[in-house]
Every structure is written in structure tokens, then in C-alpha cells.
Amino acid sequence: MLYINCPHCGLRSQNEFAYGGDATVKRPELNKEISDQEWDNFVYLRKSPRGKHLELWHHISGCRQWIKVERDTSTHEIFKTYKANEAIE
Amino acid sequence: MSQDFRLDNVGMVNREKKISFKFNGKKYFGFEGDTIASALIANGVHLVGRSFKYHRPRGFFGVGVDEPYAILQLDRNNERDPNIRATEQEIFEGLEVKSVNCWPSVNFDIGAINNFLKMFFPAGFYYKTFMWPPSFWYKIYEPFIRMAAGFGEASIKHDKERYEHKYEYCDLLITGSGPSGLASAYAAAKNGARVILAEDKPRFGGSLLTSDVNIGNQTGVEWTEKIIAELKSMPNVTVKNRSQVFGYYDHNMLVMSERISDHLPKTQKYLPKQRLWYIRANEVLISSGSIERPLVFGNNDTPGVMLSSAAKEYMKVYGVLVGKKPLIFTNNDSGYETAIEFKKNGVNPIILDTRSDPSSDIIAEAKNLNIEIKFSHVVVAAKGYKKVKSADIAKISDDKKELFNIENIECDCICVSGFWTPSIHLASQSGNKSKFNEKIDAFVPDKSKQQENTIGSANGIFTLEETIKDAFDKGFDVSNKITEKNNKVSVPTVVEKKSTDHDKFWCVPLPKGKSYKRFLDFQNDVAVSDIELALREGFRSIEHVKRYTTLGMATDQGKTSNLNGLQLVSDIENKVVPQVGHTTFRPPYTPVSIGAIVGREVGKHSKPTRKSPMHSWHEKNNAVFVHAGVWLRPRYYKQGNEGLFEASKREAKNVRQNVGVCDVTTLGKIDVKGPDAAEFLNRVYTNAWLKLPVGKARYGVMLREDGIVMDDGTTTRISENHYHMTTTTAQAANVLSHLEYYLQLVWPELNVNVVSTTEQWAGAAIAGPNSRKLLMKLFPNLDVSNEGLPFMGYKEADLFGVPAKIYRISFSGELAYEINVESDNGYFMWEKIMEVGKEFQIQPYGTEALSTLRIEMGHVAGSELDGRTIPYDASLEGLVSKKKDFIGKRSLNRSAFTSTDREKLVGVVPIDKTTSIPEGSYIVKDPKAKLPNPKLGHVSASCWSVEYDNPFSLAIIKDGKNMIGQKLFAMSPLKNKTIPVEIVSSHYVDPEGKRVRS
User: Fold this and answer.
1) Confidence of residue B556 (pLDDT cuts 50, 70, 90)
2) CATH code linked to domain B294-418
3) What does the pLDDT average to over B835-859?
4) ipTM higher than the 0.90 cut
5) Half-sphere exposure of residue B189: CA atoms within 13 angstroms, side-chain side
6) Which of B51-55, B150-154, B194-198 bottoms out in mean pLDDT, i.e. has the lowest?
7) CB contact under 8 A, A42 and B894
8) pLDDT value for B88
């Protein structure tokens, strides 16, 4: 079970969180004309890298904040965690 | 039966307390502190089971977790515990155990015929022998294999025992209380660290309990007692026996199973059976020790052949002799300790040492005691069927390939020692690679992956002096990283007699003309010949060889067999062991009860149960409850002998004719507040929200980004910047997460806050033609006329002194209102509604009537919004704005979603007006068409229309809007029904929606 450092609450066990997928995906702006391909990429296409991955976690049983976690998908090492809108180094 | 093999005044069992127990129906006596194994051996019993495949007789091989043989079935308070290890289970008064995998009895076992049909059970027999003819597989082969295979039988009854979970944090977790565990725990505890020391056995000390050593001028046992007593007295130390750390998971999370009352006579009222500890440790020291390796020779699975360390522990800890004519077969000094112990207890052992000319203090001591030692000698084969009676022994050449002078000598047990294998399981589970240590012919952990170190013999350190010194250092080092107290204790002096030399010999060659079975895996009956066959058949990877032959795949996970298997593969392949590599170690290290994993989350505790504030009223009024998500909701209120069908029909009819009241507390409620709340809702919902006036509610539909309907509900503008959103009961939590996602990550510039208020409000829906009259009486000072409180209107009012909110919204298609009060006032509100409503023939209605009402009105709910439908499919396209953008809108333009023949919501009525259509039925054109019959769609919800008194269903079918009026068929292959139906509008009742606006 992972030990995730919530930037708001501190170290908390994984069972307080829900996984939220790739954190680098950016939603297309509202009212912007975009192609089917671009929209499909946003809705469906995700990379599944082995290694470093910036991902979203939702602290649902804690502060209810969405946070970003930089984690190695093969070793589970967590390098850094960020608040929802913190700049990523 | 008397305990013929019990020694006087030796061992640690409590001689004051005699305990009786039953094995295979026969009564035996032992002492408090005995395991089933030690007590049975004391009584001279060595036949306890039958092997997995060949049903060969099985005795005892080890003395702890590594035991491959003595797997028994325990009967305890009429509950069964399958596959317990006799070497671990302590006896208690009234204990009953029996053998497994034998029929009719362990002494006479029909399955033993397999032993003579060996040619049909080669490695991988179920992959090949039984392939032909195919029709035989499930009729003959499978039932036969199922009957023959497996060990204990699990009970099919509910396990009444209690299991608990505990979460714990510590600076340092130490797994095992042998010399390295004790030393490191002591050093770390003295340095101020919070330490947990876990010992799998009932007694602390590990090898110190049985080895003839001296630490700080004390015996191993005295030193152990002193250290444990001191550790127990320290507030920063938790010391646990009967506790197995079986799993090492990510981020230094370890799981330990503590056997709390497994060794006690009957269920202790306030004690759980077992407790599972989830331990998050800053640092871990793995001191799990090592397991003695067997030597491989002919018939080496005969009862009476056992590990030499086990024989020693039976003597020193339990005061029990495993035999009176022992043969010790060893390739290192460990066998000598056992031999000396026999000699001290008046038994004359013979030592066969594979080495030609070894020397050490302990060998000298054995010689001084006049113990007969035969160097360069091996056991060729054990003789005897249910117990060792003699052994063929021989002199072996220096290259270990040839046998000379085979002779038979009498013996009643053969104690083997093939040196030691470090238990690297936990280190390996942590993610460490392992490296092969040539000196000890075994794998040890390589670089640490997590915050852990392996110490003592688990790390391949086999001298006590080095172990103690290293453990004191490690205990200090890891604790000092955390406490920085620099409090170092001095290391005691150590005296040990045995050397750590061993002969790199593990398998006795077959004498010419003999074909003895030489077993590697004692639990799964894997012999040398099976591995040879697998390699001949082309299996190379050790992982493949393992799976094909089942080597190391039994419940003992190959604790005694893995390394010898690797040796064999590397010998045949002409490789060295590290090139062959080893198979992966996975948790759990030892079997764990399913009950312990589940803990208290069984039965109704498997998920939380939420009840509305009116729950006790429903109970008092004969409500039959149904689970709706985690909520308990009244399904119907039973009157007399009514069943579900009659009751729900009565309740629904009463809504259409008079007035009904339904508990709607469970609906999800979310407060949406902030200056940008209107803009936010406008992006979340498909319809327009910017112009909703204060005091008005609106129905809204929200989508996921992929265009699928996520949820629906009404949202009311309470004040300028304050909205009250409702969601369906099931989606409440998901919708909140969804809103938080967009506010926090996508549109952080919107100044809006959301919070769940589901539990803050109790809700009652009153519906039916009499509902306004009822409302007038409930709120006499309020204008509730159609003009004063119009459809989709909202008002705050006073309900007999209690503040209330009234929403004029309807789920039933009738004139209806929803009243919300603070949860604490919910019961009061409900009683008032029932009391005042009496004169209007009010009746409560449950979820079943609620469904009936919504289905015949054509309102969609969870069965239509099933994660596959877009707004068009559910006939919600009128709510989709063409002007503004919203979540998921772009997806609706994708070609599949704009196709004209998409499935669409319709109504379905059986032509005979009497046959109910099962939910899930297919709608087809021709019921006799060739299979697979092309399906037009499916029936999503069915009810008995109370308006028309005939069955009515909703269905989602292809090109639905052009199908109205068609005569088709509903087919339910499950219920074996084919029903002629007519497709009608989904708005079966009041299609113009006059009633809700009346």
C-alpha cells in the first residue's frame, strides 16, 4: 500500500485516496473548434509509461483535494507531490 | 497411550499440565506447550497423512513453518480449519484433528494405489495423459483428479470466529527473535527507537533455544530470557509471539498475522481468533533466519526421515525423542549437534558424514562422546513403508559419483542436514534482487530496495559471533538514523563450537539397477525423475520447470525444496545455480486465514449501512427494506398478507388517486456556492442555467466527457450565489468528485465551492392529487396555490415550529412537493405528514411503487442511464443546448452519436395485456429467426401500470422513434419466454404532463 504525501495533509495511506489518471492531459478550452481526432485524443488516449508518471490522486477520505503525484509506475517510488495548480518542476 | 518417547526433565513444556486431544478419533495425552507434532511423536505416532499425488505415507519432516508433511484438519467448536500445520498448532484440551488426503483411513488408504500407477502420473500428467479421449475429461478424469487432489476441506458454514485488523506505525520492525533479531531489537530499543519485535513461534529465541552456545557467560536460553524481559519492560517496544510477518509491500508496509486464540481451548469471549497487523515501519530488519536443507536419497520421504534441526528441537524444546535408533546423515557440522543431544539423552546415534576428513570442536566432542561416525558415507535409500525400519548406506567416492559397500543397517529415524538456506522471502518481496553466495550454496539478498536490511543467517551469516556483532551494529545504525541519540550498548562475548564448513553435496546417486524415488518437493511429490523428464521435454526456464512439475508450488511454497530443485536443474544443464536463477517469492510467506484478511468486514459489516432519520418509523410500520447503494430504503410497507406485488400496486394506486409520501432522504444533495456558481452549472449541465431565477428549480442532465449521461436531478437557486443540487442516490459521491475535479483542476478561475449536504437534510416527497390540500394544512400560513408555488417553484416555510424547504418537483408525474427539514427534525416531519395526511387517505410508499410511478410516466432512471446511453437514447435530447458548450458536448458530434438509427427509449405493452415482460428481455422482429437472432434492443424496466392495470415496460430499441405502433416480440431466453408486444410511447401516462402543473 502506497504512502502518499498529500501537500495539504501530510503522509497518508493509499486507502484514503482515489486514483485519477494521467495529470498531464489538458482539457480543450470551451467553445474552441477542434477536430474529432484532437477530441478523441483528449477523451480516450492515454500513455501507459513504465517509469516516471505524473498522475492525479483525489484525497477523498481526507481533504477532498485533487493532487498531482510523480510516481514510478514500475517501482512505485514517489518522487514528489503537488497541489492541484502548483507549477510542476 | 503412554508417552514412550518423552524424556524426563528435558524441554520447556509444562509437565504440570496434562492435556488430552484426539487425533483421527483416538485420544492422546501431551503437555501444555506441546504442538500436535511433538505430542504425537511423544506417543510414537509418525504416520499422520498421505502425500498429494501418490498417497505415500507422510510423517513429520520439520518443526515449524517449513513443514511440508503434517498438514491436518482441525475441528474446533464445530467449525473446521483446513490445512493447519501440526508443527505449529499447539494442543489444547478438547482439540480434535484428523488426517487429510486419505480414504478410508491414514493407515489403509485406497489412493495409495497411485503409488503403483506412477507411470500414469509423470510430471505434467494432467497436461498430457488425460488429453484423450476428450469426452472423458469432465466425466471421468476431472472428477477423479478433484477427488484425489487437495488437502483439507473448508467448511461451507459461516465462520463464527472473530478476526481483527490493526494499523500500527513504528521506527523499526524486526521479523524474527533469533540471535540477530534479539540483538538488533535490544540495540535499537536502548537507542530510543519505537521497536516491534515479531516472533512466529510461541517461544522467543529462534536457534538460541536449541544450540549449545554461550553469550555473555550465559546459555542461549538464559540470554534470550534476559533480553526479552528487558524489552518487554520498555515502553517503546512491542514484543509479539505467535506473530508471522508474511508480506512485505510497497512503501515499507508489512502485514503480520497474530494467532491470538488458536492455541486456547474454546472461543474466548473477548478475544479474536487472529489479528492482522498492517505495520508501516520506517525501517525493517529482516531476521527471519534460515531453514535446514534436506539431502536427497532414495525413499527420502518415508516417515521417520526428518531435518536434523527438527529432531534436535523436538528434544530440547519439547523433551521428545523422534527415534531411539537414530541415523544422522549430514554434510556439515549441524548434524553433530543433533547427535550429541541424542547421546546426552541416552540414545546412541550413528553419524554418516559425506565429508572425508572434517575437523572442528564439535566433531572432536562427538568423538570424545564415543559417537560412531562414518566419514565419506551416505544413505542410499530408506527402507520401510509407514516408518523407517532400516537404511541402505554406502561409502561414496571422493568425486561423489560412485557408491561402494552398500550395507543395510537398522534405524528408526534418519535425521538429515544438507546445510542451511537463508529465508530471503521478505527481502525478495520488498523488491530486492538476490545474489548467489558460493560459500553457502544459497541465495542471499542483494542491495536493499526499500528501507530494509537483512541480518543474521537470513543474510547468510552462519557464525553466531558475526551474527551478534552485525545485529548490534545494524540495530544501532538504523535506530540512530531516526533517534540520533548515539546510545550504543556493548556487544557480549560469544562462544560457539561448530564450524560453518559444509560439503557441496546434496543428492545421492542411484546405485546400479535401482530406481528409488528421490524426492525434492515433499508436499507435491516432485522427484528427481520428474525434473529430469521436464528438462528432456524441453522446459528450460526455471519458472516453466516449476509450473510443469509443480516443484515448490504446494502450501509450503518450496521452503525445503527450492534450492535442491535448482541444484538439479543446474547440474543437468551444466550451469551454475545463479545462471538458472530462482523463481519469484510472493506473499504470503506462510498461508493466511481468509478470515484474517477479511477481518470484521463480513456479512452486513462488509459495507457501511446508512439509514434515514425516519428509519425507525419505517421499521415500526412493517417496511420491507432494500439496499440502495449503501442506504437501506423501504421497498414497500406490508399490510396483512400482502407480497411485494400487491403492496406496491396498492401504494402506487394510492398516489395516483389520493396522496402518498416517500422517504427521499437518500437523494444526493450538494451545496454549490459562489459568484460563479451559475456559470459553473452552465458548464456542468447540458441545458441552460444562467437565467434560472432565485426561488426556482430546474431539471438538469450532466454528461461525462465521452458524451454518456452521468447523472440527472433538479437544482434549485436558493439565493443569488447559492444553489441546492440533487443527484441520484447511487451517483452522489461520483458527482461530488466530478465537480471537485473541474473546480480544482480544469477551471480553478471559477469562484465556486461545493460540499455534500446529503446527510444534513431529511426529505419527504408527497405526491398525488391531494398533495396540495395536505400542504395547505401543513403550512397554513403559506400560499401554496398554483400561482403562489408553481411547478418547479421553491419556498422556505415553517412546519409546526421547524424550518422547512419546499420544492415543487415531481418524480411520479403527479402534483407533488418535496419537503426538506434538518435531519434531526426528519422524524418529526414524517409523523406530522402522516398525522395531517390521514384525512386525505395518505399512505407511505416505497421504492417499488416509486419505480412503478416513474416507469409508467416514462421518466428515465438508473436502468436507462446505465453508462451506455447518450441524451438522445434516453429521450433527453430536448435538454441539450445547441448554443453553449458544456462537459461532453463535443463527443455528441461524433458520427456514431449522430447516427439516425440509434437506439431510443420507447414503451412496450404486451398484446395480451396480462403477461409481464422480464427486465433484460430482447426485443426482436421474428422470434423464430435463426440464432443469433438479431436484437433490436432490450427491456430496461418493467412494472404493472396502476393507471391502466396491465403490464408496461420501458425499452431502448434501434430506431425507436420510428418503431411506435409496431408489433414485435420480447424474448427472455433466461426465463424461456416469448411475448408478443406492441411498441408505444414511453410517456404512457399523462403524456402532456398536465398533472404536475395542475
Assistant:
1) confident
2) 3.50.50.60
3) 97
4) yes
5) 24
6) B150-154
7) no
8) 95
Does residue A34 sit in helix, strand or coil? coil
How far is it, in rounded angstroms, from Cα B395 to Cα B404?
Answer: 5
- Inform me whether the C-beta atom of residue A21 falls under 8 Å from chain B C-beta atoms: no
Helix (H), strand (E) at residue B655: helix B644-657
Nearest C-alpha neighbor of B102 from the set B115, B91, B119: B115
For cell 421553491, what's the residue? B794
CB atoms within 10 A of CB B287: 34
B165, B251, B894: best to mutate for the A interface, most A CBs within 10 A: B251
- In the predicted model, is pLDDT for residue B477 greater than 80? yes
- Tell which CATH architecture fits domain B899-997: Beta Barrel (2.40)
CATH no. of B1-157: 3.10.20.440
CB contact under 8 A, B741 and A58: yes
Domains of chain A and CATH, by start: 3-24+43-83 (3.30.2270.10)
Mean pLDDT of B954-976: 95
**CATH architecture observed for domain B668-845:** 2-Layer Sandwich (3.30)
B583-607 CB burial, b ≥16 within 10 A, e <16: bebebbbbbbbebbeebeeeeeeee
**All cell numbers assigned to B743:** 473546480
The values of phi and psi at residue B140, to 5°, are: -115, -55
Other C-beta atoms within 10 Å of B949: how many?
A: 11
User: Would you tell me how many other CB atoms lie within 10 Å of the CB of residue B170?
Assistant: 21
Those residues with Cβ within 8 angstroms of residue B388's Cβ, 6 or more apart along the chain or in another chain: B302, B303, B304, B305, B323, B382, B411, B412, B413, B414
Mean pLDDT of all residues in B337-347: 97
In three-state secondary structure terms, B651 is helix
CATH code assigned to B163-290+422-495: 3.50.50.60
| Largest Cα span, chain A | 43
Contact between B917 and B979 (Cβ < 8 Å): yes
CB within 8 Å of A10: residues ≥ 6 apart: none
Chain B residues inside the 8 Å CB shell of A3: 250-253, 280
Residue B133 pLDDT: 67
Residues of chain B with CATH 2.40.30.110: 899-997
Q: Where in chain B is the domain with CATH 3.30.1360.120?
A: 668-845
Per CB-CB distance under 8 Å, the chain A contacts of B885 are 30-31
Are B317 and B341 in contact by the 8 Å Cβ rule? The answer is: no
The answer to whether residue A1 neighbours chain B at the CB level (below 8 Å) is: yes
**pLDDT tier, B76 (very low <50, low <70, confident <90, very high otherwise):** low
At residue B234, does pLDDT exceed 90?
yes
Nearest to B706 among A2, A43, A58 (CB): A43
SS3 content of chain A, % helix, strand, coil (to 5): 10, 35, 50
